[in-house]
Specification:
- The chain has about 450 residues and is an alpha+beta fold.
- It folds into three domains: about 200 residues, no CATH class; about 140 residues, Orthogonal Bundle (Arc Repressor Mutant, subunit A), CATH 1.10.10; about 70 residues, Homeodomain-like (Arc Repressor Mutant, subunit A, Orthogonal Bundle), CATH 1.10.10.60.
- It is about 50% helix and about 5% strand.
- It has 21 helices and eight strands.
- It has a four-stranded mixed beta sheet.
- A hairpin with a 2-residue loop joins strand 5 and strand 6.
- Helix 6 crosses helix 7, helix 14 crosses helix 16 and helix 16 crosses helix 17.
- The relative contact order is 0.12.
Amino acid sequence: MQMGYGLWQEQSQRLVMTPELRQAITVLQYSSLELLEYLESELSTNPVLEMDGGTIDWAELARQQRDLRSVRSGSLADSREDHTREPTLGDRISLTEHLNNQLRLSGIAPDLRRIAAYLIGNLDDNGYLTLAAAECAEALQVAEADVECALRHIQSFEPTGVGARSLSECLRLQLAERDSVPKEIYDLIEHHLPDVASGRITRVAAALGVTAGDVQRMTDLLRTLDPKPGRRFGTDLPVYIIPDVHVEKIGGDYLVRVNDRSLPRLHINDFYRNMLSTQDGMHKETRDYISAKLSGAMWLFKSLEQRRQTILSVTTAIVEFQRGFFEEGIRSLKPLTLRQIADKVGLHESTVSRATTGKYAQTPRGVFELKYFFNSGVQTSTGEGASAESIKAAIRQLISEENPQKPLSDQKLTDLLQERGIEIARRTVAKYREEDNIPSSSQRKRYQ
C-alpha cells in the first residue's frame, strides 16, 4: 500500500451556529425579566446603543408589577383555591430575628440568654431544633439541665410549637394551650400518627379503646395545629410575574398583544452614527470597532423583533386552539402538542418550546404560563379530546360533592367519568388524583 500527500476538494453540508443565530435563540428563550437583565448588560457593553429616557428604573418597574399575583405554572385562578399565602409584615423578618426580639424582652438570666441565643441559631426553617441538648451543652461548656431550661423559655415564645425536637413535641406544645383536649390524643400523637395519615381510623380506635368517631374528632383537632410553625417566616421575596403577552376579549374575538411596555426602547446613538458616516481622520481600528458594535446593535434589534413576532404568532395559535378554555373554563381545555402549534405557525417544535417556556399570558381568566395550554389527554365518546387538566377538574368536582362517610373510590370515579363520555382507565384516574394531592377514598372517609 502506497502512502503520500495530496489535495482533495469535496462538498458537504452542515449547520453552522453563527453568533447572530445564537443571539436570536438566546433572546427568544428569555422571559421578560431575564430579557431586561440581558438588555441592561448590552447597554453597558455596547456604546452604540442608547435607551430613551435614560436608565431602567427597577424600583418603578417592581412597583408597577406588585398588583400581579405570584403564580405557579399550571395554576388556575378560576378553578382552584389559591393556597399561596399573601406576603405580610411578618415576612419582612426571619424566624431568628422574631425569636431574638422576644428573647431580648424575656428578662431571663444572662447565662440562659446566651444558651437560648445559641439554640435559636440552630433552628431550621420550620422552627425545629436541629441539635441535641447534649451537643449544645458540650459546645457551650454548660450543664445539660441549663440547656433544657433555656429551651423551655424558647418553647414559650411565639409562634407556639417553635423549638420542638420532633413533630409529636411540636403538636403537644400547641395542644397545651387548648381547652378540653382528650387525654387519648397524646397517645395518638406518640404512637399512631402514621396510621392516622394513612386513614386507618378503625385500627387507631381499637388501639386506643375509643370509637372511630372519637378518633375522627381528634384528627380534626390535629388538623387545626401547625406542624411547621416557623414556615410563616422567611427571607425569600415574593416572585412577581411580568406577562409577556396580553389576551383581551374584544367583542366576540380575542386579541393577542405582546407586552412591549416592560422593555426599554433602544436606538442607535447619533454621535457614533455620525462618526461612522463622516470617517474624517478616523483610525481604522476605531472605525472597525464602531462598525462591529453597530452591526451588533442592528442584530439585537432584529432579534428583539423576531422574538416579538414569534411569541405573537405562537400565542395567537394557542388562543385559537384553546378558544373553548377562554370561553368556558378548564372543562373545555383541549389536548395540545408543540407539533400542532409548530405546524400551524410554520416553525420548528424547539422554537415553539423556547417561545412558550417561562413566558406568561395575562388573560381574562388569570395569568398562565404558555406551557400550561399544552396538555396530554384522553379520548371522549364524541371523538374529541379531553385534556388532563379538565379531567382533574372533573375529579375534584366529583370528590367535592361526594358523601364524606362514603367517599368515591377510584373505580367509582372512573365509572362516573365514563358516564360523562370520558374514556379513561382507573389507573389514570388514580394518577391524576395523586398528582392533585388528593387522598385515597379510605383516607377521605369520615366517621360519625
